[in-house]
Specification:
Elements (H helix, E strand, L loop, with lengths): L2 H12 L1 E6 L4 H6 L2 E3 L1 H10 L4 E5 L2 H10 L4 E3 L15 H10 L4 E5 L4 H5 L3 E3 L4 H5 L8 E4 L2 H11 L4 E2 L12 H10 L4 E5 L4 H6 L2 E3 L1 H10 L4 E5 L4 H8 L4 E4 L14 H10 L8 H15 L2
Helix pairs in contact: 1-13, 3-4, 11-12
The chain binds 1,3-dihydroxyacetonephosphate and iron/sulfur cluster.
Amino acid sequence: MDTTEEIADLKKRRNAIILAHNYERSEVQDIADFTGDSLELARKAATVDAEVIVFCGVYFMAETAAILNPGKTVLIPDATAGCPMADMIDAAQLRELKAAHPGAAAVCYVNSTAEVKAECDICVTSGNAERVMATFPKGREIIFVPDQHLGGHISSLLGTQYILWPGYCPTHARLTAQTIAKARAAHPNAVVMVHGECRKDVRDAADKVLSTGGMCKFARESTADEFLVGTETGILHRLEKENPSKRFIPVDTFLVCPNMKKITLEKVRDSLRDMQTQVSVDDAIAARARLAIERMLAI
Ligand code: 13P
Ligand code: SF4
């Protein structure tokens, strides 16, 4: 049996489902039952009836699945696959910020730890941030953590000011407006899509600012046939697979999230075989974090 067959066999025996983020290695995306962005994966995790969820993504995503499924086993094939942005703020720092702004609503990007989510009123993803933030009344004081760029993007879309935390994604932060200009010059007919985690100069230089799921939808529905992609290069696999007649060009090939790439087929197999590593969240923290996630899912 090859590794893919071993995974299929173990999956059946364990009554498991495999979820994978759009940035995962191509071969991992190919063996997944469902591939999506953070919002789509959270929605899927909230409704699966399998007993075991193997989460191929970074830790906060697996943690979100575990919070939404207290009775199920959530496995992450490599527990060191973290998100540096999520670790840029901890619960104590957020509590301090909240104490400095009593009365402010606290919102966290889903790229945050369970402890931080537990301190928040609601959570957002890049796929629903505009819609969720628009539900707050104008003039309401709002703390937005940890991504200064996504927070800045939504604040300009809605014409509001947020109290931002200086967190950022080290992968997307490498992208510059100059890189976009160079890529545009080489591909003048391409539509430029970038992720909401990009810096302002990069977002301003793009045609579309989208979540990874938003990019897949836009590429599918657009009449354009050439796209410059300003996000982690793992997404190219799905874009190409779903749109064989269209051309997708990475704005630069250095946009790789090393944590997303830690998960390999062999680690998925081992994870199902050994039932490791199980993701668990303290019950009290999970109960509070679940409220923030469920409020988001209800919008
Ligand atoms: P998406 O929710 O758009 O897939 O983004 C997740 C992420 O970590 C982007 O860096
Ligand atoms: Fe975190 Fe950036 Fe990797 Fe997304 S791409 S998981 S935000 S480090």
